[in-house]
Amino acid sequence: MPLIKEVSHPYPLIDADPHFNRVVRYFRPSDYVAWAGLTAAFPGALYALEVFDPTRQSRNMGPALRLGTLLGLTGGFLYAYQNSSLRLWGWKENEVEQQKASSEPEPSGEDGSLSPFMQAAMPWFNFTKHDYHKPAEQ
């Protein structure tokens, strides 16, 4: 039973389950711009809401703005990570990533400590190395 289901993608599949470091290495400048924009937009939106509908505690906006910055930073990173993952999976235009991947060696499963079930079932960042990066060639 194959662990990776065959699915047709609009663009070539580069890696079906990329390692966390690989996804971050393949960030484009547009991903960093989106990350920075979302980091700034969240506390900016909080401040704008306070200006238009004051809670009469404008002196104490510091903690809320710091929390908003943290939430924007986290959300921006997750958005950039998602965009990079979609390109590696072949769901978005990935010509730049194809060229970069062709100059790198294929990922190998030299360090996998999780069972195949745990690697396939847990919805988290991939921090383990395994051999399930592309569907088996027919």
TrEMBL record:
Keywords tagged on the record: Membrane, Transmembrane, Transmembrane helix
Skewed-composition ranges (Low complexity): 102-116
The keyword Transmembrane is assigned to this record: yes
Pfam families in alphabetical order: NADH-u_ox-rdase
Annotated segments matching region Disordered: 96-116
InterPro entries for the chain: NADH-Q_oxidrdct_subunit, NADH-UbQ_OxRdtase_su21_N
UniProt protein name: NADH-ubiquinone oxidoreductase 21kDa subunit N-terminal domain-containing protein
Presence of keyword Transmembrane helix: yes
